[in-house]
Amino acid sequence: MMNKHTLHKLLMLALAFICLFPAALSTSAAAPAKVKNVVLLDAKTNLAYIPGRVLNEFEETSVQWNPSDKKLHIVRGELRVTLQAGNTVAYVNEETRALTSAPFTDAGTAYIPLQVIKDILQIPIQWNKQTSSVSFGQEDKQLTLPYITRSTAASQGKAIVSERKTFKVGSRSFNVQMVTISLMDPKVQLKVALAGDEIGKVEDLSSLAKRHKAAVAINGTFFNAYTSEAYKAPYGYIVSNGELKMRAGGDKRTIFAYDSNLLTQLIPGTEFTDAFAEGNMEGALQAGPRLVVDGKVAIDVKTEGFRDPKILTGGGARSALGITRDHKLILLTSGGATIPQLAEIMKQAGAYQAMNLDGGASSGLYYNGKYLTSPGRKISNALLVTYP
Asked: Torsions phi, psi of 364, nearest 5?
C-alpha cells in the first residue's frame, strides 16, 4: 500500500507535468486549425505577394522565419536566399539582388514578392483568371492558390451575409433567399456532408446541419428520392474530407469542387478523374446543369447528358450555387424558375461561375439555426459552411 510520503511526491510530479506541458492534456492542441494561403495583389502597383510558409510545399525547398529580426531564410537546392520585411535587398548566396518591392508582414504572416519566386527561385508561375488563382511549378506537380487584392483582404466585412432579394427576369420577378460567404475569411470552412454519414441514407437538412454545427447548409446532388427501398442512391461524384465517397464514371454533369484553401471551381464531369488524381480536392458535389460561365449565362444540357426534354422549360423550386471573382460563394434558392431564368438570376446576383443543384422538394437553405427555405423531404447530402 502507498504511504503518504510517496503519494505526496507523485502528486507533486503530476502537478509539475501539467504546468510544464499543458498542451499534452489538450486534444485541441494536437489538431491546429487550417490556415488559408492566398496570393495578395497590390492594385496600385500590380505586384503580387505569396505567404513565405508556402515555399515549404515546393520540392527541395525550405523556409524559416525569424520574427525577432523579421528575416526569411530560404534554401532551395544550392540556393541560399535571405529576405527581410521592409527591405528591398535580397541576399542570394551572399550576393545582393535588388527587389522591385519589399517583403512585409500582415496578421502574423510574412509575404514575399512573386519576383523572388519567378526570378530567383526559378519556379514557373501561371495565372488563371477563370478561377482567380495562381499556379506554381510544373504542370505535373503544381501548387495552386487563390488570389485577392490587398484592399479586399483588408475589408472583408461580414463573413456570412443572408438576404432576401428580388430579381427581374424578362417580365417576371423572383423573390429569392440568398446567403453569401466570404471564402477567404480564415474562420470559414466548407464541408460536403452525407445524410447519416453514409451513402444511401436520407436526413432532414436542418438535422444534418446541426450535427456538423454548420452556420449555413444547402441541399446537394440529385438522388433516388422516389424509391421505396431504404437505400436511396445519390447520383454523381461526391468527395468529402478528401475521400471519394461516390463514383459516377462517365457522368458529364457539372461538379463543384474546392481545396483546403477553399479555392473553388466548377468542372465538367469528364474532367473529374484527372482533377481528383492531383490530390488537392477536399470536397466535391456533382449536379448541374452549368448556369454561368465567366460572368455570362451559358447552358448546354445536351453536352452535360441531360435527357429530359422539359429540363429547360419546366419551372419549380430551385437551388443553385455561384462563385464570384473575389472568392465569395453564393447559395441561393428560388421558387417557380426555369433553368434559363435561374441562370439569369445567378448572373444578376453577381456569380462569375454558377451551377444548378437538386431542386423540387429537395430544395432547402438553412442559416443561423433556421430554414430560409424549407425542403419538402429528407435529403441525401448537403454543402455546409461552418463558422465558429
From this structure: -155, 145
Q: Read off the pTM.
A: 0.86
Phi, psi for residue 381 in degrees, rounded to 5:
-160, 165
Q: What is the pLDDT of residues 8-63, one digit of tens each?
A: 444 444 433 333 333 333 333 333 445 689 999 998 999 999 999 999 998 889 99
